[in-house]
């Protein structure tokens, strides 16, 4: 198009016009690096242009711009004074006085933040584009600012002034469609977050011997919700199961799979199985729930009598433990493949968790960074844990901050902090243990009764609780002597909330409660214990054999 017919010239227009009007000048030869001036000039050699194609350069520029439905404005000089606005621009923003600076006469451009961009275009002589800017009237436009040169009016035609051609395409429909898409994505994410949080524990169980806190933080607004979860399950007899896991997926589906796995974990935990057997059951279940998704998980059991965590890991990150002296221990082995892969026999390991220790279970969002190896993240967590003191919730918050997790983090984060307090003074008096080896066959029964009577009296329990405890201990010992094998042991334990009575022996046959007939001479011991105790249960012990226990809730002071 020939801008000279409307007192405006784009770069290169003068040279092409001179080449057409001066017969003494031959058209420039195209080299390999040259760019064709117009599409019609790029044809094969010998091609004859049609009259319509040959007349493109003679089109009146102003008439073309007036008819374009897009918004067009032409400004010049450092103040961006108005040289021209087309009809579409005037219809959108109103008539604009020619010769006035843009800051005063084109306030819409200032509101849209285009004036600094126009200054940049003027300085660099390079076009710039900004996409989907919403104007005051509610319409959205994509603006392209292109540098042009304009002859100064009333002077020699060779005296030029720098200008900018502002071209705005109406993209309202596209912007509204994009906003609807973003709103839909936000709604889906909010649904997934709500589902995720509703499937997590609303309130953590607090065992007698442990202090526990957890934190879950979904990824930022640009990240889809994952399947991180944690749980705390009291198993009875003073033992506690600690769980953390991560479904390798995103969105509502991952949250739903997580919820099913968490429910299954709680069900299997009630069987009081060793950690590796729980993972073995979950491995097959995970494949049935969704064969396309796998999950990592750690299942650990704290036994206050042993002062340790017995755990099994399905492809999850290692448990970290800080002992009373501040030394960090990493539970490295054993680790099997993630749940849902099948074909693997999981095994259990043990890590100490004595009084004064703090353990941390976490998901990969806490330590994994795209620019670092994950081992570096775990090492950073170890350093942070070494200096993190305070309550479990305070430790959670400090670890989150130390690892740089913010609201716009790109992955979900779940952290579970467990503390085994070192009790002293009057607090220690509320946590007592006593044990008796049951030797000598049936003669052990009266010794066990006498032992329980003396211990419970020394712990100053109310008479009713004292008598019920002695009766329960007698029944459990009698059951073990009749059906079990040596070695046998009676253990009495009290906490600030309950009395726990446990008998272990070498036979792995678990007792069950049954209804005894009137003529039966046996079968009533477990029924009596189940009737008088707050809770009872049994489990197989790691070295072979079983433990049968019951507990009584202490009256509140």
The beta-strand count equals 21
Q: How many strands, what sense, and barrel or not for the largest sheet? A: 6 strands, mixed
Q: How many helices in DSSP terms?
A: 16
* Uncertain residue ranges: 1-43
Strand content: 25-35%
| Average residue pLDDT | 84
Distance between the termini: 96 Å
C-alpha geometry: elongated
Percent of residues in helices: 25-40%
How would you describe the overall organization of this protein?
Helices cover 32% and strands 26% of the residues. By secondary structure, it is of the alpha+beta class. The strands form four sheets. Strands 7, 8, 9, 10, 13 and 14 form a six-stranded mixed β-sheet that branches. A five-stranded antiparallel β-sheet has the order 2-1-5-4-3. A hairpin with a 4-residue loop joins strand 1 and strand 2. The longest helix is centred in the N-terminal third of the chain and has 28 residues, at 172-199. It starts with 12 loop residues before the first helix and ends with a strand.
Keywords for this entry:
32% helix, disordered N terminus, 21 strands, five-stranded antiparallel beta sheet, SpoIIE family protein phosphatase, alpha+beta
